[in-house]
Specification:
three-stranded mixed β-sheet; alpha/beta; globular
């Protein structure tokens, strides 16, 4: 059973205006009934399972693709449950049975419409219902290039990204990414029934969704499931990568927090017990593990061997040419690190060095080499508020330690800015067309201490997404929002952000390493209040 429409209203703060003419599609022997959003001339289908429920013996296992629904009539008029995650997400709105997919489409289209598909969504938090596709579908219709928008859930935390040697031995690593592959396979098999073209899928994502999508781009299997990508604030190495044994203690803390399995925490034989545990015990273990972890994000992708999704570091795979030759848009926000560090307890450079060691300690280098590089890093990013993030705020420390701005600048560049450029340069060297951007528009009404923080571009891109960023949108920002949507829609429909339709906007040139070498010109489009321009 799924929660009703109030579930969506609660965490996306967007109400649909249903009519009595509910849209229907056939999936095999099942009639799937959605909801018509009459005010926008759109249809919504939500909470459709794309995999078998990952509970019991299927808990901590790769997803099993759901090829048929289990009933003759399926109510798809609302979103499904969010996957299990920590507060502040309300417990009553989440469940383990969460592997569902949602579809927004223009009304009155049929199986033969073959519209292009824009598909996407921390490894600890998130839900597909947060990404409301009505705004971007409406803009696609207004500009004469209609699309179908798809979002999905994937398992989070220890259920989606198990850590430790036992998970490695049982081939149960990176399950959340396998969930994404299963969702893409479901789209491949079923999106035509909703009027989408399974040969014109653009896989997009933000933050963890972007990291996961970029990991798929390091695997040739993505080429049969999507033809392009959009990476917003995240790439394969944003979260780092390590062997699963590195976070053995995090797995033990998780098991120790599950009352029915706590005595087995250090035995290396925990999966059978965890598969038999009830969901409330599992959730309790999640809370314990997060409270005990010294890292910001202990549950994330790991190296999983030659036959896995992450067989080696991206820095090694690029020179070997081990990546899919698919075009993409990739960008970041000006102050990516602030929202992660604003509540940090780090107030000294010694503490900062320890935090870097805890979060970024690659096994390929010795401790001495690591510490040497950390000291070099601290010299390049000195404790000088005028140089820190949020950038362009002078010596203002917003009542916090000056180390906050130093820490935010390091984390933002290390995890996001450098990774975006690494990917763009690697693809450019392989003659694959990519487009880069930097989002620099502060959301109206947000605290200045955050600057242009991680995820703040979502308000512009989805426009109606007030549930994520509940701040007013001024008329200039509305113009910026329309331009961003036009670029994204143009790319999804034609593999080129410059189709000439919609809002008049500058030509977005492809990213090239040659232009990067020039100090007077870079090929990154900058989204600011004065509309859009090139970074100079």
């Amino acid at each position: 059973m799924k929660p009703g429409i109030l579930f969506y209203v609660f965490y996306a703060l967007v109400q649909f205006s249903p009519s009595f003419a509910a849209p229907q599609v056939r999936l095999g022997d099942t009639t799937v009934t959605g909801q018509e959003i009459s005010s926008l001339q759109q249809d919504f289908f939500g909470g459709i399972p794309f995999a078998e429920s990952p509970v019991g013996k299927l808990r901590l296992k790769p997803p099993v693709l759901k090829t048929t629904l289990d009933e003759k009539e399926f109510d798809a008029s609302s979103f499904g449950y969010a996957c299990v995650q920590p507060p502040p997400f309300p417990a009553k709105l989440m469940a383990e049975d969460c592997l569902t997919i949602n579809i927004f489409r223009p009304s009155s289209i049929g199986p033969d419409s073959k519209l292009p598909v824009l598909y996407g969504g921390g490894f600890q938090t998130g839900a597909s219902g947060i990404y409301n596709g009505t705004g971007i579908v409406a803009q696609s219709m207004a500009r004469g290039t209609p699309i179908v928008f798809v979002s999905f859930n994937y398992r989070l935390g220890p259920l989606g990204f198990p850590q430790g040697s036992e998970a490695d031995q049982l081939h149960s690593l990176n399950l959340g990414i396998y969930d994404q592959i299963a969702a893409l396979e479901w789209v491949k098999h079923n999106i035509a029934s909703f009027g989408g073209d399974n040969e014109k899928v653009t896989a997009s994502g933000e933050s963890a969704g972007s990291i996961m999508t970029s990991i798929l781009f390091l695997n040739y299997r993505i080429e049969g499931l999507a033809r392009a990508g959009i990476f917003e604030s995240g790439h394969a190495m944003t979260s780092g990568a390590s062997h699963p044994e590195r976070r053995e203690i995090d797995w033990q803390n998780f098991v120790r927090g599950v009352p029915s399995c706590s005595s087995l925490a250090t035995t290396g034989n925990t999966f059978s017990c965890l598969q038999a545990a009830n969901s409330s015990d599992i959730i309790q273990g999640l809370f314990v593990s997060i409270a005990e972890s010294p890292e910001l994000f202990p549950w994330q992708p790991v190296l999983d061997g030659p036959d896995g999704l992450v067989p080696d570091y991206a820095s090694r795979r690029f020179p070997r040419g081990e990546f899919a030759r698919l075009p993409f848009i990739a960008g970041t926000n000006l102050d990516e690190g602030t929202i992660f560090e604003v509540y940090s307890r780090v107030t000294s450079e010694d503490g900062l060095a320890q935090a870097i060691t805890a979060n970024y300690s690659p096994p390929a280098v010795s401790s001495q080499t690591l510490q040497s590089h950390i000291q070099t890093l601290l010299q390049l990013y000195p404790d000088n508020p005028a140089l820190g993030s949020p950038f362009n705020t002078g010596n203002n420390t917003f009542g916090l330690s000056s180390v906050y701005k130093q820490n935010a600048a390091i984390f933002g560049d290390l995890a996001f800015q450098s990774q975006r450029r690494f990917w763009s340069q690697g693809y450019s060297n392989a003659d694959v067309k990519t487009y880069g951007y930097l989002f620099t528009e502060p959301p109206t009404g947000t605290p200045a201490v955050l600057g242009v923080f991680h995820s703040s571009e979502l308000l512009a891109l989805f426009r109606n997404l007030t549930g994520v960023l509940p701040f007013p949108v001024g008329p200039v920002s509305a113009n910026l929002s329309t331009a961003m949507m036009d670029y994204w829609i143009s790319f999804a429909t034609s593999l080129d952000p410059n189709d000439g339709r919609g809002t008049p906007r500058p030509i977005w040139e492809p990213y090239t390493c040659e232009n990067q070498a020039s100090p007077s010109s870079t090929q990154e489009l900058v989204f600011i209040s004065s509309f859009v321009t090139y970074r100079r």
